[in-house]
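REQUEST FORM: STRUCTURE PREDICTION
Request ID: SP-0412
Submitted by: Lab K.M.
Chain count: 1
Length (residues): 190
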Amino acid sequence: MNSRTIALLLVTSLLASACGTVSNKTSVEALPSDAFRASDTGVVVLSAGAPEHCYSMGTFLGLHYLPSGNAVSSAPLILVDGYVHKSDFAGHHGTVNALQLAPGTYYLTPISANPYFRVVTAPIFQFEARAGETTYIGELFMTRSCVLDMDIRFVINDQYERDIQVAAQKNPAVTLRTPVKRLTSPGAAR
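STATUS: Completed
RESULT:
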């Protein structure tokens, strides 16, 4: 078993047994303020969400290097519709997230939290991280929660004002440099 499979099994166990919320490792508040000052790395801000939270078939977004398709092993998965993270929004389940990344091109792709479910093809969402820059790539909104047939459909919404306001409330260091808006673009399914 590879480390990604083990991590998914652990997360699934957590989802099945959690009695409350678990801290969001990709929350903007999880990044140290130095991340927003670093000149050799960039910060990517995005929100991820769905109409409601899910108990049985949660979906994550996994981060990959665009040229190779390899997973970025140091990056935690971003939970889209799982109930273990408190929502940052009143009208739907969602969180504002941030990742500190080396300069380069990346993509996010959905991954099922259920270890017995294998995704055959899934959409990808491409973006670039630039050194010394905070980049907002949009809201990746899954149109249906708890997708059992992996007919996963996402829309990319421009929620810059809302998401950056939430990000700044959670981590005032976000305002150290004005986030640049470059919405993610969908790529060919992998």
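NOTES: The chain has one domain: 3-187.
Reviewed by: T.R.
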